[in-house]
Write a structure and sequence with these properties.
The protein is an alpha+beta fold. The chain has a domain at 2-120: Jelly Rolls (Sandwich), CATH 2.60.120. Helix content is 52%, strand content 23%. The protein has helices at 2-9, 17-26, 81-86, 107-116, 118-144, 147-157, 161-164, 167-174, 178-195; strands spanning 27-32, 37-39, 47-53, 55-62, 65-73, 77-78, 93-96, 100-106. It has a 4-stranded antiparallel sheet. Strands 2-7-4-5 form a 4-stranded antiparallel sheet. α4 (107-116) crosses α5 (118-144) and α6 crosses α9 (178-195). The longest helix is centred in the C-terminal third of the chain and has 27 residues, at 118-144. The chain is globular. The mean pLDDT is 93.
């Protein structure tokens, strides 16, 4: 499990062998089954996870409705950054959409690494910057793109998402009803056939 994590981290910073060993000492590899809850809305997020294999969904409850706020796949970091950083209750829940392999570090262990070596501060900053960019792109797409454009963009980013995510969750994430998503998908498939 660690090798995949190190390959992903190497895209951000190059870790020495000692730094890799330091990280291994304070992390825990985990294999969790589908539908496991990593974090419940209203609880403080005490762990940061690296997703080695699988898929997760972020969601929250509003007016008796479950709203999907995001998805994460292999190579992504998983947690509620708001809760993890502020130490306040999370505004969303995180659930596994498939059996998953993760490498997990506690808040306290991450703080230990930050104090031990500046490379961990750099890695943390770069990870947060990447997350912020994704968040802003999603916010921008919700504000400025049509649902059809958001759907096409999502398929460009994650070509296999339709095989991994329930349509109801995808519709919620895109901010449309499941019926509207069905129409969008039909039009998209029709346009794709015309191009080929």
């Amino acid at each position: 499990m660690y090798e995949k994590m190190f390959q992903a981290l190497d895209q951000l910073v190059v870790l020495s062998e000692q730094q890799r060993e330091d990280l291994k000492r304070v992390t825990t590899p985990q294999e969790l089954p589908k539908d496991s809850i990593l974090l419940e809305q209203g609880h403080i997020c005490n762990h940061l996870h690296f997703l080695v294999e699988g898929a997760v969904r972020y969601y929250y409850h509003q007016d008796d409705k479950e709203i999907t706020s995001g998805f994460r796949f292999e190579g992504d970091f998983i947690n509620s950054f708001y809760s993890f950083i502020s130490r306040k209750p999370s505004k969303e829940s995180i659930v596994l959409m498939s059996d998953c392999k993760l490498v997990t570090i506690s808040y306290d262990s991450l703080q230990y690494l930050y104090n031990k070596d500046s490379v961990w501060n750099r890695l943390g900053r770069l990870s947060i910057e990447s997350y912020y960019i994704q968040l802003e792109e999603h916010f921008f797409s919700l504000q400025s793109q049509t649902a059809s454009e958001r759907y096409a963009h999502l398929l460009q980013q994650h070509a296999d998402i339709l095989n991994r995510v329930k349509l109801g969750h995808l519709a919620s994430y895109l901010g449309v009803t499941q019926e509207t998503l069905s129409r969008i998908r039909a039009k998209y498939r029709h346009r794709q056939r015309l191009r080929n």
